[in-house]
Design a protein that fits this description.
Blueprint: E1 20-24, E2 30-34, H1 67-70, H2 82-121
Antiparallel strand pairs: 1-2
Keywords: Ribonucleoprotein, Ribosomal protein
InterPro entries: Ribosomal_eL34, Ribosomal_eL34_C_sf, Ribosomal_eL34_CS
Organism: Naumovozyma dairenensis (strain ATCC 10597 / BCRC 20456 / CBS 421 / NBRC 0211 / NRRL Y-12639) (Saccharomyces dairenensis)
């Protein structure tokens, strides 16, 4: 007859945090070994892909791990992926360029209006 394994000492319900694995001891007895939850990979805040180079740990374990496991040495490292960072940089550059172009066009129109006024007075 098969030996049964029951929850012991801990929570007696089959919840997500109370999963067990049945393990056979060297004495031939089946025991319940509690299994920790699987850690999800940290995701990019913009596009949602898993961040390469950042350790996949349970939230509390990030406190005990060194900084090199939590970030990558780049702007927004450990928060955004490289493609999203590149997009942000390009977008910021283009917005600045747009502002400069707008300013130049405005100055040219004002100069043209002044020249028109001087030409109409004579």
């Amino acid at each position: 007859m098969a030996q049964r394994v029951t929850f012991r000492r801990r929570n007696p319900y089959n919840t997500k945090s109370n999963k067990i694995k049945v393990v056979k001891t060297p004495g031939g007895i089946l025991r319940a070994q509690h299994v920790k939850k699987q850690a999800s990979r940290p995701k990019c805040g913009d596009c949602g892909i898993a961040l390469p180079g950042v350790a996949a740990l349970r939230p509390r374990q990030y406190a005990t791990v060194s900084k090199t496991h939590k970030t990558v040495s780049r702007v927004y490292g450990g928060s955004r992926c490289s493609n999203c960072v590149k997009e942000r940089i390009v977008r910021a550059f283009l917005i600045e360029e747009q502002k400069i172009v707008k300013k130049v066009v405005k100055e040219q129109t004002e100069a043209a209006k002044k020249a028109e006024k001087k030409g109409s007075k004579k």
